[in-house]
Amino acid sequence: MRFGASSFIWVSPFSTAEAAGLAARVAGLGFDIMEICIEDPAQVDGAAVRAAAEAEGLQVSVCGAFGPDRDVSHDDPAMRRAGVEYLRTCIDLAVATGSPHVVGPMYSATGKARLLPDDERERQRGWAAEGLREAGEYAAEHGIRLGMEPLNRFETDLVNTTEQGLDLCARIGLDNVGLLLDTFHMNIEEKDVGAAIRAAGDRIVLFHACENDRGTPGAGHVDWATVADALADAGYDGDVVIESFTPEIQEIARAVSTWRPVAASGDALAGDGLRFLRERLRVPVT
Question: Which fold has domain 2-281?
Fold first, then answer.
């Protein structure tokens, strides 16, 4: 199992200018992976980011940022098209940076939470499947996997649970499209976190390890023993990334409702979390 840290812990938006410094920080804390969030693709030179990461012995993970102008389930076909094109750009950056995947809540715009009739929500799931199938086919041509992230009910109305994520995978019908599971969201939405992880099985593309308050893993009430056992039962021995946010980055803090610090510093959150996860999640895979 390898462990990573998200650029969101320290910076937003991520750009090539931060790549060398961030890579040195992430490697210095003992991580194997630097996850970069692509808020503005124009600010990210994939080859330069890869060089900075490799200089520190790191792998890159690419995570998308899905705003209202990148929404593959939007009512407006032009917005759906923009969502697919953004995903294609992220896939190109994954190739350039050496990331094996693109992950994130790519089925909708983050923060879109509405009370809709069942038929309307079904229509939007259909649009999402159509757009993500196209993006998934493009990704497959380049050897890239897509990992769709179920979010909690306050951040999306489309895919909240692993079961709904697996349903969307089935609608898309591609082997290289799976799920990014995140313990923060699962803690809110899943009735049984262990059962949800086991159900995802080999559809897990990436795993985000976050506390119930989005703070340092091990500092809250997430049942990490259950998580570890379920990951082993699911056969998952892949990458685990810590993702958190700082109130100093106001736009992101507002989007994810981070109104107070959840750790003394980004370095403390990442370093303490890594030590905890290395101890708790290194379990034999059955």
Answer: TIM Barrel (3.20.20)
Asked if residues 95 and 197 have their Cβ atoms less than 8 Å apart, the reply is: no
pTM above 0.90, yes or no: yes
List the domain boundaries for the chain: 2-281
- Catalytic residue of the set 18, 190, 211, 243: 243
Active site residue 155: no
pLDDT digit string, tens, across residues 163-177:
999 999 999 999 999
Does residue 130 carry a catalytic annotation?
Answer: no
The secondary structure of 221-267, three-state, reads: CCCHHHHHHHHHHCCCCCEEEECCCCCCCHHHHHHHCCCCCCCCCHH
Q: Which of 149, 155, 189, 211 is catalytic?
A: 149
The DSSP H or E segment spanning 128 is helix 118-141
